[in-house]
Amino acid sequence: MSFLQILRTYLIVAVTLSFIAGISFSFFFPLSYFSLAPLSAIALLLGVCIWKFQNTGVLLLLLFFFYAGIYSSNIATAQPTSPEHIVNTTEDHEETIILGRVAQVFSYDGEITRFDVNSLASRNSATTFETVHGKIRYIIKDRLPDEIIPGVTVAVRARLKRPQRFLTPGSFDYPSFLAEQDIYITGYISSPIHLEKVRSTPTFFNSVQYFPQRIRHTINSFIDTSLSDESAAVYKALLTGDRSSLSPHTIELFKGTGVLHILAISGIHMSLLGVFLFALIFWLLRRSEQLILTINTKKTAAFLSIPPLLFYTLIAGAKTPVLRSFVMSLIIILAVCFGKKHSFITLVAAAALLILTLSPESLASPSLQLTFTAVLAIGAGLPVIFYVNRQIADFKLPKMFLRFLTWIVAALGVSLAATLGTAPLVIYHFNRISLVGIITNLIVEPLICLWSLTIGFCATLCIFIAEPIAHILFQTGSFGIHMALKAVSFFHALPHSSIYLPSPSYLHVSLYYLGFLSLALWNSVHRSYRPVLLLLPVSTMLFLAFPPAEISKFFREESSLTFLDVGHGSCTLLETPGGKRILIDGGAISSPEFNIGERVIAPFLFRSGIAKVDDIIVTHPDSDHYNGIAFLLHHFKVKSLWVSTREHNSPGWHTLLKTASDRKVVVHVPHSGKIYSRNSENFLDVVANTNSSFSVGSNEKSLVLKYRHGDFTALFPGDIPREIEKKLIRQGSNLSADVLLAVHHGSATSNSREFLQYVSPEIMIVSSGRNRSFNFPSPVVLERCAQQHINVQCIKEIGTIEISTAKGGYQLDTLLSL
């Protein structure tokens, strides 16, 4: 069979791959180069070629979808250009009054409530309202009043701002996450009095538009009143896709045991609902003899299941994962209804094409990648599962036992296929893989999906028919949730139930799947060559557990300093020749639920292929220099922790030292002049430990560090105040350096003129946040640097900075992750 014949046989698969390639390459082709005119020209030429020249038409069809992928991706990811869009009419941190309709309300999580508003008009400094449009996500530290439900008109007074992210590779891209939901601006409501319902008469269109969200709000409210907080949170996630009430502890239990996907509305949920609807409608249709004789009741029941599935999709928010599940179910139902027999791969490709046409930007989402990869892996593993079960069927065992055994083998096979198929993507996106996931899925999925979810669907229907029955059903269904929570708690407590691993490279992921694809040739090659086929998949699996970066580091000859963007805080990764890794500080000012170590520092290390950090140094006991380190001590095999003092009146500081003790990490308190690390070409010295019996504030208890590699030097003075700077100068301390990490984030209370002259750096790196209340770096400090011709680099403006040594000097690069 020729290549063109293969393309024509699997045309939908080829078209989908072309469309995916176009989306993938759209980053390199801005929208200005790809307008709709060339797309139309190709379409016209395509029609002619299909009519006259079929083979050429196939190739043009692939080119058309490649071009369409680029064009649609550019359109989907473009910022709103309308002058009336709220993002184009509002300045950052500007207090604005918005009139709009509530689009969606998320559950109160014990501290805050999030809700979305479709804006209609705004007023800031102007005296009158101006027409605007666009969705805004608001946050309020309180429960919403009962009358604030989807569809009502509200007046909101809040400070609006564009969402931001940490400019550190690997960290979560919050603006892109919101952009997928058409949200480009957020607001913080400082007081409940700044939110008021406005009397209005909704139009018929508005009533229809917000009806699904009102139903969702009713379901969530009923669940809250019927169940305990924990069971209610899980049920809302299962039935309406609202995960905002799930506690961090519950999420961790499901995540650590590899069953977090169950809490997201997915193909399993849609399939169960589809089966439930099909059975109900089929049973109703079979009550009529005339219908049995005149129509195909099975196909009709399947077709009539589509509208309820669509309505459920709208109730669940019609987010990308839910929409994806609906589309996959829709394609399968239509294929059954119209009697179209297609291969498994063709159905999957058709679903992917339709989903990506609706949402091209979702190609980069982990959920889409994992869903389709798992489906393909299970499909590829089914022949093996069927073969094993055929062998088991020949065993001379009782019939009931054989059925149970074949069910166990099938369930284990499906779980194993999905785990192996998604392993590199799970590690790439989440840097964590569960070692108990295969077993946990066998226990938790029946409890939640077959018991709780099935009963939950019935209970949801009864909310609007018979509330007492709905209450009883939810109580009954929560038993499965309760048992599932016990199961995940047990498996989560097992040693090494999950492990953290660095992200594999794109090449590594490609080789992994290429290796498993090569196993398809197993029966086509001679037995003596079969071990060679195993070499690629086995080796790539080993490299997942033993990352190449952990091997190549021993051959490293240069040094590098990476200054991470952690907001208002400090974190620097030092990598020395020979592969030693030292982290200098690791903290930031952040909310209690946001751990800078888990959310920013660790993802950067993992994305860099780093599985081990040798030592961590905390310059002084301020939380914005250490509050992310506890997480790193747990997951990066740290040998020692260097601190300026053990004594400090802070619960967080004592918790950090206790964590180090529990993890058997050696804690050092070095004295001034201590040589931390030295060899022939590079060393790291403790120039001074400014802690003394006279030290009062934490800033006065700082380690001042200096690193040298050849002729290159860098100084890390912590947050020492101006008085300590002068004291070090009087003592004649060796402070001169090429690169200076700005003292106290660029504050005017430090970085004195005398100190800057004494250090005489070429570059000063400033690690400060974007919060305007701090105003770091200080304009006074910037003026001093300008007078002394010091090149100031602000991390908050250009993102994570890397300075690497090179022959004859050093090189500065930015690692801005777009």
Helices and strands in order, then pairings?
Layout: H1 3-9, H2 11-25, H3 36-52, H4 54-77, H5 86-89, E1 94-105, E2 113-123, E3 130-131, E4 135-140, E5 153-161, H6 174-179, E6 183-189, E7 195-198, H7 204-226, H8 229-240, H9 248-256, H10 267-285, H11 289-294, H12 297-304, H13 306-315, H14 320-337, H15 344-358, H16 366-393, H17 399-430, E8 432-434, H18 437-463, H19 467-492, E9 498-500, H20 506-518, H21 530-545, H22 549-552, E10 560-563, E11 569-575, E12 581-588, H23 596-607, E13 615-618, H24 623-626, H25 629-635, E14 640-643, H26 651-662, E15 666-668, E16 675-678, E17 682-689, E18 703-709, E19 712-716, H27 722-730, E20 739-741, H28 753-759, E21 763-766, H29 779-787, E22 791-794, H30 795-798, E23 801-806, E24 809-814
Parallel strand pairs: 4-6, 12-13, 13-14, 14-15, 19-20, 20-21, 21-22
Antiparallel strand pairs: 1-2, 1-5, 2-3, 2-4, 5-6, 5-7, 8-9, 10-11, 10-23, 11-12, 16-17, 17-18, 18-19, 23-24
Task: Name the poorly predicted regions.
Answer: none
Shape: globular
Q: Kindly state the mean pLDDT as a whole number?
A: 85
Computed over alpha carbons, the radius of gyration is 30 Å
- Structural class based on helices, strands and sheet pairing: alpha/beta
- What's the count of strands? 24
Short key terms for the protein model shown above:
818 residues, alpha/beta, eight-stranded mixed beta sheet, seven-stranded mixed beta sheet, 30 helices
